[in-house]
Structures are given as C-alpha cells and as structure tokens.
Amino acid sequence: MNHWVFWSLLSAFFAGGTAILAKVGVAGIDATLATAIRTSVILVFTWLLVGMNRLRGGNLPWERLDQRGLLFLVLSGLATGLSWLCYFRALQLGDASRVAPVDKLSVVFVIVFAAVWLKEPVGWQNWVGGGLILAGALVLALKR
After folding, report:
1. C-beta neighbour count of 22 within 10 angstroms
2. Contact 42/18 with Cβ under 8 angstroms?
3. Each residue of 84-143: pLDDT tens digit?
4. Which residue, of 40, 124, 125, 140, is most buried by count of CB atoms within 10 Å of its CB?
5. How many domains does the chain have?
C-alpha cells in the first residue's frame, strides 16, 4: 500500500512503541546519553537502508540536494535532537501515558506552523481537530 494514511498509522504505531521502550531505556541514565545511543542506532539503521536501496538498484539523486534543502534538513535534524532530549527527560520525570499525549501537541504546532510559514490552507477541520488534540492532551496530562 502506498497511501499516506497507511504510512502515518504505521508511524504512529512505532512512535507508541518508542515511548514505552524509551521509558524503560532511560531509567537511571542521563537523557543526553540515551539520546546519543538512540541517535547512533538510527544513524546506522538508516545508512543500512540507503545501502540496501542502492544494492537493489534504487535511485539516490544526490545532485537534486541543493544548499537550501541541505540547510533545512540539518535544521530539522537539530530540532529532532532537541525534541528527543526533551522527550527523554520528560519520560524520566513523568509517566509515559502522560508524557506521550503532551508530546503529540506537536500536531497542533504543525497546524499553526504550516498555516503561518508554509501558507498551507488550514480549514475549520484542522482547528477543531487541533483543539481536540489539545483538549485530550490536557485531560491526560492533568489526570491524577
């Protein structure tokens, strides 16, 4: 299946698993060390995927990567690293069932950022959905 919904659901599934695995993994160690280990695994894993793609005859058009694209990928990588550091620290301090929903407020930020910076059309469904995510995160984060 090559539909964005399939890949989005798969991403959500793995992200859910990540929260549980990370909660257990960060117990007793520094969040920075945990992030470095996770990042190292991802680095090796993704380059293995690139190599496998190349061996299967996949096209890797490096020439289409311009300086602007590279800059934004680097900035995205830095934002990811900062996000993971904060996420791991939050997991050390709180319950995974409360941390993960608050982390998913990233969806609300994406809606706002997409409207403001990417000039994407954002309709009432986006705002209602974002509001529901916000409300759900608050309900789950504030539970006793």
Report:
1. 22
2. no
3. 999 999 999 999 999 999 999 999 999 999 999 999 999 999 999 999 999 999 999 887
4. 140
5. 2
How far apart, in Å, are the Cα atoms of 139 and each of 98, 103, 112, 126?
9, 13, 21, 20
Residue 18 buriedness (CB in 10 A; 0-12 / 13-18 / 19+): middle
Phi, psi of 97 (to 5 degrees): -70, -10
Do 86 and 108 lie in one domain? The reply is no
Lowest-confidence range among 25-39, 49-63, 98-112?
Answer: 49-63
Distance CA 102, CA 138 (A): 7
**How far apart are the C-alpha atoms of 40 and 35, rounded to whole Å?**
8
Domain range spanning residue 36?
A: 4-95
Two tokens at 109? 């930020």
Using alpha carbons, select from 27, 111, 38, 112 the residue that is nearest to residue 81.
38
Q: Are 10 and 79 in a shared domain?
A: yes
DSSP code, position 105: T
Amino acid occupying residue 128: V
Q: Tokens 């890949």 label which residue? A: 7
Residue with tokens 């900062």: 82
